[in-house]
Amino acid sequence: MPGEDASTGGGPTSSVASSVEAVFREERGLLLAALVRRFGDLDLAEEVTSEAIEAALVHWPVDGVPARPGAWLLTTARRRAVDRLRRDRSAAVRLALLQAEAERAPAVPPPDVAGDLPDERLQLFFTCAHPALSAEDRTALTLRCLAGLGTPEVARAFLVPPATMAQRIVRAKRKIREARIPFRTPGPDELPDRLPGVLQVVYSVFTEGYAASAGTDLQRADLAEEAIRLARLLRRLLPTQREVAGLLALLLLIHARRDARTGPHGELVLLDDQDRGRWDRAMIEEGRALVRVALTGGPPGVYAVQAAIAALHDEAADVATTDWPQVVALYDVLYALAPSPVVALNRAVAVAMRDGPEAGIALLDELAGEARLRGHHPYHVARAELLRRMGRLPEAARAYRRALELAGTEPERAHLRRVLAALSPPGISG
Prior knowledge:
This protein is mostly helical. Among the domains are: 1-107, no CATH class; 240-339, no CATH class; 344-430, Serine Threonine Protein Phosphatase 5, Tetratricopeptide repeat, CATH 1.25.40. It has helices spanning 12-39, 42-63, 69-87, 92-104, 121-128, 135-145, 151-158, 162-178, 191-210, 221-237, 242-255, 281-295, 302-315, 324-337, 341-355, 357-366, 371-374, 377-389, 393-406, 410-423. Helix 1 crosses helix 3, helix 7 crosses helix 8 (162-178) and helix 18 runs antiparallel to helix 19. It is elongated, with a radius of gyration of 25 Å.
């Protein structure tokens, strides 16, 4: 019967709640973008989006889920927004202006059955990733508005209390409002300068998912998968942008290894020891196809080059047979495009695989003065590995201990403790 309690385990109320959740996850970004476009207020759009979902939970168990749920939610949210603005005297002028703009604007056909909501998420991407916002605020807003994560979930991603994240999101929205940041897609002349910021936001989300900065788990699969979903969305919205294809390729080629990166108890498994049979071959093939797109038609971008490097790793039967000369050559290209100590570190490791540990350690020693690397635990891990291969065990132990001090997750620390225990038997001092 309509209204049956969800606790009966499979009644209509439970089914409707599941339908609402599915619609919310799939179409929240669409709905939010359409409302921001209409009313120019991110706070208002979020509030009436939540109210529309609440109304659906009231009406759909009785009336049934509508054939076009997205259109139902949009109509409901629009009405709630207009009601709010009418009650707010300070918003009366803004409502009048919006109505005047609507009358002057060309007629927009109603949403079709296949796509209940107009897809204006690209504008929302560029609003959330506007350069006027700090890097952390851009990432937080994108997770909140486009990935549909709640404030507590975003807080967990940043490893901060929910109250802190709520304040950060409020501050970012206020900045958008006070700086009058426009809700629009940049023109062709602006896109080259603005798109990298959007791609960096998505990549930052993925990086935290692939290699968590702290905590008990090595990976945050939920964040990595949200980043891939956002990259797929960008690919649909900007199909001719080769760097978008490059970013999606990079994420897929790295995420394809996720199941092999940890053991049965969540312990770290290094690339050398991974069971490559557990890598996702379909994801790798999709990534490789996108690499070809990203590298065709002009000079490569930074994500395309990184994706090409990832493809070489994924194509190899093992570490020893990886095409290290080509990996080094690609790092040379990447360093010319985006020079950084981290790129130099990764290139040094590739050189060590091509030419031997002595060549690699010489390059790492040249980077020892880089402030960014002194607190970067992979740098110390790389030095320790090469020193161990060269038989310089006391130095290797010191480097491993420094890496242990800096490692953020428990699986990384546990791995380093095991390596140190094996490396430092009685009689070998640091």
